[in-house]
Design goal:
The complex is a heterodimer.
Chain A lengths: L1 E8 L9 E8 L6 H12 L18 E4 L2 E4 L14 E5 L5 E3 L2 E2 L2 H9 L20 H11 L12 H5 L6 H11 L7 H8 L13 H5 L6 H16 L1
Parallel strand pairs in A: 1-5
Antiparallel strand pairs in A: 1-2, 3-4, 3-5, 6-7
Chain B lengths: L1 E9 L3 H9 L6 E5 L15 E2 L10 H11 L6 H21 L13 E10 L9 E8 L5 H15 L3 E4 L1 E9 L2 E9 L4 E12 L20 H8 L4 E2 L4 E8 L9 H4 L3 E3 L7 H4 L9 H13 L4 E2 L5 E6 L5 H7 L1 H11 L8 E10 L3 E2 L5 E3 L6 E7 L4 E2 L11 H21 L13 H12 L6 H15 L3 E2 L1 H18 L13 H25 L8 E2 L7 H4 L1 E8 L2 E8 L13
Parallel strand pairs in B: 1-2, 1-9, 2-6, 9-18, 16-19, 20-21
Antiparallel strand pairs in B: 3-5, 4-5, 7-8, 8-9, 10-22, 11-15, 12-14, 13-14, 14-15, 17-18, 22-23
The chains are: A alpha+beta, B alpha/beta.
Chain lengths: 235, 584
């Protein structure tokens, strides 16, 4: 069958502004959108630029805006979307375009770094083994630890669109990952970082992030746990 | 642009990041990577990382070492294997201390599960009792590699490590036996950057993309190994490439051995548990080379299952494990089966086929990651390699599952320590010729030619032929044919057309350079496979079906020789494990 894509193109060396380009390819239902992008690049137009690596939803490179929704190109199959109409692909929003679907993610990574995304523990670990942690406590971290930093959540959030200083759901999820780790001793420090107008309180529980997350993480719930922790702390 | 650092690490997967964490603050260190660090392929490892912690049952590092030696089909260097297995418990505890989240035992210790080829004596007091599977793989659901990579990157942030992300390695500069630096292009501008360093570590990963069906990421094109070969240096044991038995049918996406570790069973078209025939004692938990051969043998004997496109697969049966266990312990891989094949693993079997997975061979090093210049033990000053791109050799002819994540943390750290020691007295050595020249030539050559060959067509032909002729089963006729095909593809490569002539994020150009690297990888793999006239580990010659210890208990070192290649050999290091017939 034939499928038509409309892809936002932008090459700063040539174009004054981004514009759409259409491509029609022969495709089958079980192809992923990444397969389709590859077919376009490899058979029709070698100049098309996009990021990708693992091709099965683990490395988080290929977040795109697919028919207006943030998705991983490699985790979405043609059969799961309306392929009978022209499929529109834009870069995920709210980040500067380097070329075509490739974005400058510096700001996203800076916000991730801002929450101190590493275990802080001044108490020396036991000399003879691991720190003990119940499986129940470990599993409280697993959902947040699934995050692949694809930025689909942060760039789907209306609060991000309207306020560039908002730290965003991905960074807040990372904050949760350490605040609720029983081994970590810097919860207070991290809660100080997120307890700001541009931190957790900029989250208005719109739930776009959950819809956008390719790893099916309930991000809003995790942010609400941070809000609770801040409230409890104040008491 | 020229940058000066004490040490430059190329590659930001587990090995590179672990080495970076180890670097003392007084030395300047940069990590360059063609992808943002957390996109590295380490993140796709699933089932576990092994260490004889004994958290779930009694275990010892000697059993781990024995299994690794036997799993390697006696080609692994036993001194390096002993170091790795003895250091494993410390290395895993250290990751836990760094913050890596693990699944836990009821006592709150790191959880462990069974994995292929990892065994212990059924009766520890009777050395002749049979060996049974042991819980040795430390795990975090089925995302062990993902959380390990995240944890190591987090610790790099904590340590303020300098990263050059999306810099693509284009040249390794070795002059007079001294490694002086590397050249790379900034992908976002195509600007050439030279990194002048006292020490260089390659942690550039593997090259599964040389085969058509692979679990490897698109970035797995062996750039580091290819540059070593192009610099006239040898690559070791290139004929040993592992096919993982359970890739998703047609796609090659990895389905972790943990699926079988948790009780999954392979079945043929009669529903038979055929591994009972091939490995009576450990059955589905036999090492990967054996299971992959068993699967192909079943399909060749007419016992595969016919798929919709006329190709055959084998069933991986998880249905008896129950939804709870699957959701808790195997959520990621069962998700892949649902997403990509539309199969519900709690109710249906998952169609699988072997998938190109891991390079046992690579850049020859000693157990301190120092790179060898030849088979005599001569070293290249200031050059180090660790992880999949390196051949220590701890994996020999066949790697055991979970030993790769262990390899990267053990040898990443050892490399970091060795480099720190070297840097105490090392100095920058001036380049004799312009270090950016070769890269600039390469770029202008690729960008100005107006050939007619498509990059994707050549790559596809290479991958399909490597799969057919240099894959799980090999023979002289096929390998000789493959040799001809590679010669022709290399000739056609001179005529490829890079459509994108721009300087901004030119992935077309990158793919062209990667294809050149893959062609060299294919050449070294195929030539080494043609040379080795025996079957050992993952290298199976139909025309030489037996292991031949008298003639072939040795490592191969392949290097360029004029227009062709030459192969030298190096003895395997033996400590305490006598070669035996490899039965499970």
């Amino acid at each position: 069958m034939q499928v038509t894509f409309k892809i936002l193109r932008y090459n700063p060396e040539k174009d004054s502004e981004p514009k759409y380009q259409e491509y029609t390819i022969e495709a089958s239902l079980n192809m992923t959108i990444l397969d389709c992008l590859h077919r376009i690049k490899w058979e029709l137009d070698g100049t098309l630029a996009f990021r990708r690596s693992c091709a099965h939803g683990v490395c988080g490179s290929d977040g795109i805006r697919l028919n207006g929704k943030n998705r991983l190109a490699c985790s979405t199959l043609l059969k799961d979307i309306n392929f009978k109409k022209t499929i529109t692909i834009d870069p995920i929003p709210a980040m500067p375009i380097i070329k075509d679907l490739v974005l400058d993610m510096t700001d996203f990574y800076d916000k991730y770094t801002a929450v101190k995304p590493y275990l802080i523990c001044n108490t020396p670990p036991p000399a003879d083994g691991e720190r003990r942690q119940s499986n129940e406590d470990a599993e409280k971290l697993f959902e947040s630890a699934k995050c692949i930093l694809c930025a689909c959540c942060t760039t789907s959030c209306p609060s991000t669109w309207t306020n560039e200083n908002y730290i965003g759901p991905a960074a807040l999820l990372k904050a949760y990952r350490f605040v609720f780790d029983t081994r970590d001793e810097a919860a207070d420090e991290r809660l100080d970082i997120v307890d700001t107008p541009d931190g957790i309180w900029r989250c208005h529980t719109i739930f776009n992030c959950i819809e956008a997350c390719p790893k099916e993480i309930n991000i809003t719930w995790h942010i609400s746990q941070l809000k609770k922790a801040v409230s409890n702390r104040e008491m | 642009m020229i940058h000066n650092f004490d040490v430059v690490i190329v590659g930001a997967g587990g090995a590179g990041l672990r080495a970076a964490v180890e670097m003392p603050k007084r030395f300047s260190c940069a990590v360059i990577s063609k992808v943002f660090p957390t996109r590295s392929h380490t993140g796709t490892a699933q089932g576990g990382v092994c260490a004889a912690l004994g958290n779930e049952e009694n275990d010892s590092w000697l059993d781990h070492a024995f299994d690794t030696v036997k799993g390697s089909d006696y080609l692994g260097d036993q001194d390096a294997i002993e170091i790795m297995c003895q250091d494993a418990p410390r290395a895993i505890i250290e990751l836990e201390h760094m913050g890596m989240p693990f699944s836990r035992t009821p006592e709150g210790k790191i959880g462990q599960r069974k994995f292929g080829g990892h065994t212990k004596l059924e009766n520890p007091n009777d050395p002749n009792s049979k060996r049974i599977p042991v819980k040795r793989a430390c795990y975090s659901a089925d995302r062990t590699g993902h959380v390990m990579l995240q944890t190591l990157y987090e610790n790099c942030i904590k340590n303020n490590v300098t990263f050059y992300s999306e810099y693509f390695l284009t040249d390794l500069i070795v002059e007079d036996g001294i490694c002086k630096g590397v050249a790379a292009i900034d992908i976002s501008t195509s600007e050439v950057h030279v990194f002048h360093a006292k020490a260089i570590m390659f942690a550039t990963g593997g090259f599964g993309r040389v085969f058509r069906i692979t679990s490897n990421a698109h970035v797995g094109t062996g750039d580091g190994c290819a540059l070593v070969y192009q610099a006239g240096l040898p690559l070791e044991d290139m004929e040993f490439f592992q096919f993982h038995p359970t890739g998703l049918w047609r796609l090659g996406i990895l389905v972790s051995e943990a699926a079988r570790g948790e009780g999954g069973i392979l079945r043929n078209n009669k529903g038979e548990r055929f591994m009972e025939v091939y490995a009576p004692s450990v059955k589905d938990l036999a090492p990967r080379d054996m299971v992959s051969r068993a699967i192909i043998s079943e399909i060749r004997a007419g016992r595969g299952i016919l798929g919709s496109d006329g190709t055959y697969y084998i069933d991986l049966d998880l249905t008896h494990l129950g939804k709870k266990l699957i959701d808790e312990k195997l959520p990621e891989i069962t998700g892949f089966a649902r997403t990509y094949l539309g199969v519900e693993p709690t109710k249906e079997c998952v169609p699988i086929q072997p998938t190109a997975h891991y390079a046992m061979g690579g850049i020859p090093t000693n157990y301190d990651t120092e790179v060898f210049a030849d088979n005599s033990g001569k070293k290249i000053k200031g050059f180090y390699a660790a992880g999949e791109c390196a051949c220590v050799s701890v994996h020999g002819g066949n790697r055991l599952g979970t030993n790769s994540l262990l390899d990267i943390v053990v040898f990443g750290r050892r490399g970091g320590q060795k480099i720190a020691e070297y840097l105490k007295t090392a100095e920058h050595v001036d380049f004799k010729s312009n270090p950016a020249e070769k890269t600039k030539e390469k770029l202008s050559n690729l960008l100005t030619r107006s050939g007619s060959e498509k990059i994707s067509t050549l790559r596809r032909e290479l991958q399909e032929n490597m799969m057919d002729k240099c894959g799980i089963f090999r023979n002289e006729a096929d390998l000789k044919q493959m040799k001809e095909i590679i010669v022709q593809l290399k000739e056609r490569y001179k005529n490829i057309n890079v459509e994108d002539k721009g300087t901004v994020f030119n992935t077309d150009l990158m793919e062209a350079i990667e294809l050149g690297n893959l062609l060299d990888i294919a050449e070294t793999t195929n030539e080494s496979a043609l040379d080795r006239k025996e079957s050992r580990g993952a290298h199976t010659r139909e025309d030489y079906p037996n292991r031949d210890d008298a003639n072939w208990m040795k490592h191969s070192f392949i290097s360029m020789d004029g227009q062709g290649t030459k192969i030298n050999y190096k003895a395997v290091v033996k400590t305490r494990f006598e070669p035996m017939e490899r039965k499970y």
